[in-house]
Structure formats: structure tokens, C-alpha cells
Amino acid sequence: MRSNSFDPKASWGLKLAALGGLLFLHAPILIIFLYTLTPDETTYTFPLPGITFKWFGVALQREDLWRALTLSLKVATVATIAALILGTLAAAAVYRSSFFGREAVSFLLILPIALPGIVTGIALRTALGGFDIPFSFWTIVIGHATFCVVVVYNNVLARFRRMQGSQIEASMDLGANSFQTFRYVIFPNIATALLAGGMLAFALSFDEVIVTTFTAGQDTTLPIWIFSQLTRPRDRPVTNVVAMLVMLITFVPIFLAQRLSAQSSDTEGETK
Amino acid sequence: MSNSPTPAIRFNQVSRYFGDVKAVDQVNLEVRDGEFFSMLGPSGSGKTTCLRMIAGFDRPTSGQIFLYGQDVSNLPPYERDVNTVFQDYALFPHMNVADNIAYGLMVKKVKKSERIRRADEMLELVRLTGFGKRKPSQLSGGQRQRVALARALVNHPKVLLLDEPLGALDLKLRQQMQVELKSIQQRVGITFIFVTHDQEEALTMSDRIAVFNEGKISQVGTPAEIYERPASPFVAGFVGTSNLIGGEVAKRLTGSDKLFSIRPEKIHLGNVNSQPEAGMVFLDGAVRDVVYLGLFTRYLVETEGGIDLMVVEQNLKTTSMDVLSVKGQKVRLLWHKDHINPVGG
Fold it and tell me: Do A69 and A204 sit in the same domain of this protein?
């Protein structure tokens, strides 16, 4: 009898292992936080020789940093919007209709995420060069959209497959046209999938390095800016400050997305 | 026959092919105004396809469908004055019960106060007053069923379509809903078209029944007509159970070797010496199998012509001991000539 029931208390070994896993994941990030406060410019010494907030001031003054940050935010926003529209349309087409080559289309849509970024990057650069398209903001967006569409597509398609297909018919039957059906029935059903897919797409775009280096030309996005900082050891604390800011900024939407999708899965859980 | 000259629904030579498969094959049909009409048939017989073509989810390959005289064959679902109760209910999970019911009014831009009033009216009709604020996920199967019905009735459609709506309910609830559906239909006075594969359900509720087989209609008639006078061997076998007799034996009994059907409960099981009364025929045989079912007993009798006949007798005076002891005995089967029903073919 006792052996059948699951012991809700975890053993010490398991607790230690969990703690170890969390430390392994997050200790390096904490180290970055710590060294934003060091007065020492080039070396990581422990314990810190002292505590200073001057690097925050220095970071605020850096023109190039702010330009990189705004460019990254803009690119990620536009790429995410494009991905939301294209990914949803593609998912709807693959879900609702069966046409010749549907599986192939689905596979081709998913392929860019599996393809090494360097291959996508070289391919895009060659294509852009071949058509004499100058590098710009939009070439970066196009590069990012290749993999952002996939995450939205996957999320939305999975949601469509879980949704009762007869809901759409019920809506039309009750007098709603296609637009009303989308607004009142389909959109509320896929809203959290769009949110989750959009967040992920934004995050992917925001920290993309490889494809960007091939499509950016002279522009510098934030990850490329950080990457280039590695060759300048004197700026290391500034880089740490930027890394911390990025962490704090991304923490908020991810935390919210988690809360939201947790809530929606709660209500879905009640149906069974 | 009917008060209204225009039928609620008329099929004119309607066909629907899926590739080479003739799901519906040149069907002609009339459903009268205000009647409870059932489409009965096994799965794949075309009944659901017919329903979907009336709703507008599917279009006929050829032929026309008329709704009160208007050709609706190519109208989209939202332009037809027809509503559907779906097999899986298809309630909107993100809306509460009242919003689900008022959905049809909302998309037609009916004022909010009016929507609330009519949704409440519908909740009362399906006996769910006070459930408006709940989510569909908080309801039982039977309650969801009622919400689906209320939602489909709120627009006062000319015809209500029901696609096996009772299939997911357990037996008790199903029987209760059968009675309730019928009474709601009589109260609202809307033509109901009910699709089912359950012959008992169709016999219980319908004014008339169309029996579907392989994309065609085998017979249309009242429950009694369908049951007492099945027009084909298929109908005789699908609606209830029937014994089919043809050939030499039929010739001796009826004077014609054409196939006829006889219902198991019309046959009297007697001993070998029982004499037929006037107007009765008989057949001798031996009881091969006995199944005691409490309310009645089912006997399988092998008769002289090598034909197995099923006989059902109520256990009015007999006990299970009595009936089981009959197994293996010689018996005489007698029935009235009136119950012989030629089925053609």
C-alpha cells in the first residue's frame, strides 16, 4: 500500500541536485551582476577591491551603445510582427486545408530553425548580393524573420490542432462571417499561443549574432556590439552593465508570459 | 397532407461525391413545416452529409436544396436561416454560458439589453436558469448539451439541425433528453431535423423518419410505417430485428416465392401439436438457442427449410428455468398472415 503512493517529500540528494542545477544555470549570470560593481577595469578579482556605481554612468554616456540597443529593439519588434502575421497565416493554411505538398510546405517552414545560422547567413548574403540589394535595417529584419516565423507557426499550429474544429463551423452557423469568426472565436483561442510565440520570436531576434553578421552591413545590433566589446578589455565593466540591463529588460516579458500561459492552462485543465 | 404548401426543406436530385465515393446519390426529399424529422442510417450512409449540406458546411455536387422555397444550395452558412446543434456541442470555451447563447445575436449586432433578455429566456427554456455566468468547462455533459441547444435556438431559425446530439450521453440521460427535445420542439414550433444511427431514438421522437443506406433514401414514413411495413430488406434489418423468408418456404406460406419479413415479436411459439387459428400460418422447427433477457426471452429456432428464425416472447408467466429448458425441443411457430410484410427484392 505504502509503496504505491508517491512520497511528496523529496530526498536530500534530490534537493542538492536541484540546487546544483540551478547554480550551474545561474551562477555565471550572478557573477556578471557582481562585477558591474567592481572598480577594477580589466581583471576579475575576488573579493571585489571595492564597490562603485560609476560604470552605470559610463554606460549611459555611450552613444554607440544606445544606437545598438534601439536598433536591436526595432529589428526585434518588426521581425516579431512580421512573424506573427506570416506564421499565423501559414499555420491556418496548413491546418485548415489539405493541398498537394502540404507536408513539404510544413517541413520547409520548420527547416530554417534547424539549419545552422551560418548557412542561413551565407545564403541570405549571397542572395542579397545576387539581387544587388543594399544592406539595411530591412535586410536584418528579413534575416531574423526566417527563424521567427517558425516559432510562431509551431505555437499557433499546435493550438489549432488542440482547438475543436467545429467551433469555427458553429460560429459561421450562428451567423458570423469570416472576419467575425476570426475576431470572436479563433483569435481568443490562439491569443496565448501568439503571445508565447511572439515572446520567443522577440527573444530569438534580440540576441541573434550569426545571421545578423551576414545581413547587417555597417549597422550594429546589441549582441554584435557586446561581441565586439570582447576585444576591448578596458570596457569590460560597461559590457557587464549592459548585459545586466538586457537581463532585467527581458525578465519582465518572460515572467509575464509564464504567468499568462500558466493561467490559461489552468482553465483548460478544468475542462477534463 | 400538410397545412403548409411549401416544405421546410426540399432536396431536388441532390448528389454529393467525394472523389469516386457517392456519399449522397440523387436524393429527393421533403421535410414538412414544423415536423420532427429524423435521418436514420448506419455510419457512411450519407445522412450527416445531407445535414451538412442543409447547414451550408458542404455544397452539393449537383442538385438543389430549397429552404421554404428559396434555393440555398450555394449560400454560405451565415446567410442561411438554419442553425445546428453539433455532435461535440462546439461551445466556445473562452465565453461563459450566457455569451455562448447570445453569440448569434451578438454577431447580428442586437442590442446588449435585448441579448441578455433573450439569453435568459433560452436558459429558462432549457431549464438552466442561473447558469449564465458559468464557463462551459464547469458544466456536465447533459448541461452542455442544453446550452448548445439554447445557442442554436436563440436566433429563431426556420429549421434546427441536430447532428447526433445525444451520442455522448449515458443511457438514462439520453432517454430523458429525448423526451425533453420533443417537448421543446413542440413548444417552439420549429422544424427539427435530427440525424441519428440509433433506431430507437428515431422511433421515439420523430414525426417521420427517412432511412438512409449507401447514399440513398431507402424509405420515408412515420415510425409505425417504418417499423410495421419496412419497404426493403435493409430497412427491415436496420430498424429493429426482422426475420426474412423467401424461396420455397415463402411459396408454401404465402403462395409467392418473393421475400417477406416478419417481426420476432409477432411470432407465437407453440408446441408441435398447436393448431393454427383462421388466418394464421405455421412453420415447424427446433429451438437452437435461448437467451433470457429478464423482460423477455429471445429464441433462435431452426425451421424445416433450414432458415433460422428469431422469436421474442415476453416473460409474463415464465421464469428463466422454464424458458431455458425449452432449448433443443421441437416447436411450432405460428403467426398471423397480416403481419407478413413483402419487402421486394
Answer: yes
Over residues B158-182, the mean pLDDT reads 89
**Per-residue DSSP letter, B134:** S
B186, three cell numbers: 413542440
Strands (E), A7-52: none
Specify whether the CB–CB gap between B65 and B72 falls below 8 A.
Answer: yes
| Chain-chain contact of B135 with A267 (C-beta, under 8 angstroms) | yes
Contact B57 A169 (CB under 8 A): yes
Amino acid at A267: T
| Same structural domain, A13 and A82 | no
Do A265 and A199 belong together in one domain?
Answer: yes
A132/A18 same-domain check: no
Q: In this structure, is residue A134 part of a structural domain?
A: yes
Name the closest residue on chain A to residue B53, using Cα atoms.
Answer: A173
Mutate to test the interface with B, among A173, A179, A265 (most CBs of B within 10 A): A173
Instruction: Give a yes or no: residue A260 inside a domain.
Output: yes
Segments of chain A with pLDDT less than 50: 1-3, 265-272
pLDDT of residue A4: 52
Quick check: is A108 in a domain? yes
* ipTM exceeds 0.85, yes or no: no
Burial of B63 by CB count in 10 Å (0-12 exposed, 13-18 middle, 19+ buried)?
middle
Contact A170 B92 (CB under 8 A): yes
Joined grid coordinates for residue B182: 420533443
Q: Tens digit of pLDDT for each residue in A135-186?
A: 889 999 999 998 899 989 998 998 998 888 789 999 999 999 989 999 999 9
* pLDDT tens per residue, range B23-53: 999 999 999 999 999 999 999 899 999 999 9
> Around Cβ B176, how many Cβ atoms within 10 Å?
13
Q: Is the pLDDT of residue B280 over 50?
A: yes
A32 and A164: one domain? no
pLDDT tens column, A103-117? 888 888 888 888 888
Partner residue opposite A173 with nearest CB, options B55, B92, B108: B55
**Number of structural domains in chain A:** 2
Give how far B78 is from chain A: nearest CA, Å.
4
CATH fold for domain B263-342: OB fold (Dihydrolipoamide Acetyltransferase, E2P) (2.40.50)
Query: Please, what is the end-to-end C-alpha distance for chain B in angstroms?
Result: 29
Same domain assignment for residues A17 and A131: no
Per-residue pLDDT tens digits for B82-92? 999 999 899 99
Residue B211 scores a pLDDT above 60:
yes
Domain that holds residue A38: 9-52
A84 shares a domain with A144 = yes
Q: Which CATH superfamily is domain B9-238 in?
A: P-loop containing nucleotide triphosphate hydrolases (3.40.50.300)
Distance CA A169, CA A175 (A): 10
pLDDT of the residue at B31 = 95
User: Percent of chain A beyond pLDDT 90?
Assistant: 25
Q: Phi, psi at residue A136, to the nearest 5°?
A: -160, -175
Domain assignment present for residue A90? The answer is yes
Contact B138 A270 (CB under 8 A): yes
The whole-model pTM stands at 0.78
Residues of chain B with CATH 2.40.50.100: 263-342
Closest CA to A93 of A30, A157, A140: A157
How high is the pLDDT of residue A267? 41
Q: What is the C-alpha separation between B329 and A112, in angstroms, rounded? A: 78
